[in-house]
Each structure stands twice: as C-alpha cells, then as structure tokens.
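re: ur question from earlier - yeah i can do the single chain one, its not a big deal. heres the input i used so u can compare w yours
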Amino acid sequence: MDFPRSPKVSLRLKIFLPFLLLTLAIIGLITTLVNQRFTAEMHRNLEDSLENAGTVFYTYFRNNIERLIDKAGNVSADARLQASLTTMDRPTIAQTVAELYRDRQADLLGLVSPGGTLVTMEGWPIDLFPDPLSEPVITDALNGYLSGDIIALADTLVAIAAAPVLTRQVVQGVLVMGQQMDQSFLDELQLMTGCQLAFLVNGQVPHSTHFPRDRSQAANIFAPLLESTGVIDFLADGEQYLGMRAAITNATNIKQGDLIIYKSLDAALASLGPIRRNIYLIGLGGILLSLIFSYILARSVTHPVEELAAASRAFGEGRLDVAVQVKSNDEVGTLAHAFEEMRTSLLKAREELVRTERLSTVGRMANAIIHDFKQPINSVKGFADLLRLPGIDDHKREKYADMILGGLDRMMEMVNELLDFARGDTKLHLEPVDLNAVVADEIDHLQGHKSDTELELSFVPGEIETITLDRRRIRRVIENLIGNARNALAGRGRISVATAANNGGVTLTVADDGPGIPPEIRQTLFDPFVSGDKSKGTGLGLAITKSIIEELGGRIDFTTKTDAGTTFRVWLPNK
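and the output i got, formated as tokens:
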C-alpha cells in the first residue's frame, strides 16, 4: 500500500517517528540508569553503614574497657580489701571480695595472690576461670600496672580489668573485675549503629539482636562471614543480607571471638519500590503524551519540540539542573510539564543522596575530632587524678593545675582550628616571631614527651630575620609536620628540621628517612581525611597545615621516594 505523498502527512511522520523513538530511548535509558544508580547507591550506603558500625563497636568497646579499668582501680584502693589482705586469711579475703561484689556493678570479681594463684572469685565458677598467669592483664597488674583486656569464658566474651592492691607500694594481690558483653551490650550498640549484631564465640552465637527461625543454625548462617575480610552477601531464612565480621582480639592479638554486623539487603531494596514505580509511571506518561501530541501538533510545534528535545538530551546526560521551560498551555506545554516533573523528582532523589553523603562526612569528621581530642583529654584526666591524691604539696598542685589548664587551652585551640578550617575562615593574630626560637621550643617540647627511644630529632637553625607570623598557628604547622614524620618512622629513624633565608622569606624544612608517602595518596595528600595510616591519623593534619600556610601567604610542597624518606618544604614570606 502506498502512503499519500501529501506534505502534511509526511511532516507528521518525520516529526512523530524520530520523536517517539527518541522519547522511548531516553526514558528507557534514564529509567535503567536511575534504577541501577539507586541500587548501587543503596548497596554502597549499606556497606558504609556496616563499616561505620565496626568503628563504633571498637570505640564503644575501648571506652567500656577504660571505664572498667577506672572502676577496678577505685575498688582496689578500698580500705576493706587492703585490710583483709594484711590478715592473709583466705576466708576473710573471700568474705571481703563477696561484700565488694555486692556493692559494685560487675559480673565477676576476684582476687589473685602475688604468686599468681586465684584466691577467690564471685560471679563466675573459680574452677572455670583460666590460669591467672596466662593472662597478660593479670601479669601486668602483678607488676604494678592497671590494665584491661577481653577474654572468652566458655561461649561468653568478658571484658576484664586488673588492678594491683598496694600496701606501702608493695603488691599484696591483684583485683580482677569483669563485665560480660551480653545482650544489653548488643542492644545499646544496635541503637547507636542501626545494624543487626551478633557475637560468635567458639562456634556458638550466645547473643544476637536478631536470630533466624532456627537458632541452632545461627552459627552456620554466619560461617561464610568468617572466611571474608570485607562485606559480603549471605542468605538467612530466604532473605538476602549484607554482612561483615569484626574480629575481637585480646592484648596479645589472639582472637577471642567475632562481632557479626549485618543488614537486610532485600528490605533496603524494597524501600526503593515507590520511587521505581513513580519513575515507570512518569516514563509511561511521557511516552503516551509524546504519542498523542506529536500527531496533533506536528505542523505547529517544530520549534517547541526542538527545545524539548534539547532539554531531554540534557536530562539523559544526567544534567538535572537544566529545567524544561514551559512556554505554552497547549499539548506541547503539557508534555514539557511532565518531563519537568520527572526532572524534579529525580533531582530531589539525587539531593537526598547528597544529603546522605554529607552525613557520612559528618561521621568521619566526628571520628577525626574524637581522635585528636583523646590525647589532651587523657592528659587532663591524668593530672586531675593526681590532684585527688592525698598529701601532695602546693607546688605540685599548682603544676598539675597548670597542666590541666594547658590541656583545656589546647582543646579550645583545636576546636577553633577545626571551626576555622570548616568555615574556610582563618583569623590570624600576627606578630613579629623568631621562627628559630619557636622551632627550637617545639622540638624541646616534643623531645621531653616522646617515648620513641630510637628516634633521632635534630634541628639546624639558619641565619634568618624575624618575620611576621601567627605564633600559635605556626607552632601547629611545626607540630603537624614533625608528628607526620614520627608516624611514618614508627619510632625508629631520623627527623631533620632546618630553617634558611630564601627568596625574600624563610624556608622551613622537615625531612625524615622513613618509607616515603604511598603513591596512591600523593596527589591528594593535602585533602581532608587523606592519611597513609588510619590508625595514627585522622587525615586532617596536613589539610589544616596547608590552610594555615596559605593564609600566611606562604606555600608548602614535598618530595618523597619509596623507602628513601620524605621532605616537606614550607616557604613563608617576610612581610
């Protein structure tokens, strides 16, 4: 059958067919890409949630150990306990420990003799407790140190703390205090993380926030997680989960059990159902509108259709900020309005993803702040504990108070520094500064507190003039650069610091003979949260250092070679 050769029909076909095919392709591609993107993002968000839960667990666990150590130290100083030990009478000691067990919130309380024999135990069968001399935490206490650890008793994980009981600085025994990591521990951790959690100890699952229908199969369901070091998929009761394990080890790095962290992948993907249906409905509406209105308005909508096609192409490329301009109230305007609704819906979805990423960044910043504040907080706490000791003279009291005030000032400086860095607004307090004196003072301070006996720290001052700087912030720069080198050396090696006049200013050089900066982070070394060793750094030190130097009108660069060390060079103008 021959089609009429009327230009009117030909124009409609020329407009209708390409437009319809283009609309189908764009909507189909967008629908597919959006579905894939949502699924991938949901998967990544679940992985991030599981990994963050692991970090929260280790932090929460360490905090519980520290609190238990403090409690054990207080109980070991109890006058009743010390008096009972002087009697050397086993029943008297056992009675005193029983009284203390009733008074204190602990799951087990025991006493070990100076010879390493378990004298008495409350809250746990004495014959089921391991040999005290096999536990490093107890041997440390026999040597006069407060310490904590975790042990597995049967299928139960128990956090323990050991404190020496001293009489005239002589160890009369060791107090052992334990707290079970039980269901209440997991319930609190679940509230903090939003993840399902379970303990796996000696092939058993003693506690879990969520059990399969057949509890006896819990260990078998979680078994695949023990063979992987990352996040994997696993099946439980016909439901797909994402999960990972966090190994729980004692002070000698011997595994005592595992924490299983998991979330339902099926439930997470099911939450995307309404969004997917909306996308399909919008896509179907767009196709229907294009089919209807392309026939009716073919001769009069050539220019509007071109504008709509251009907007559709931008939409297909993912540029959702390009709005469809609705210039008429006819059918073409309706079609354009449908595309605008689709764009707005997907734009809101993308903004939600951006918001989720911002929340993740807030979590990393919180971890950074916790890491940086831990040392000054511990220092303040230590000196505060010293102030509480009886019999200290006024000179020491004033010294300890100054140390506490210094630690608080340091924390306030860190708060202001992080706020300035986050706002990108650094307020400088400029004054004439002898850079050599500042460097020497900072090195003296570091040498007075460093415990790296095999670390050599040297300073070669150059003949430089007094320059205008912010004294407090340049000290922070020096501290960050030397601290970065110390972390790289891991307690063994050489750090060389030098100053020199250079090109109308001053050059500060910090060099080490360590392993060098890993190649994969060299290009982004000064970006926030970039660190070669996550266990010793938060990734903010060099970012803050660069920000301070640039505010002072200077610049910073570095050279590094694998296994041949790293040299940072800071140039500051002589204003």
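The radius of gyration is 33 Å. not sure if urs matches, ping me
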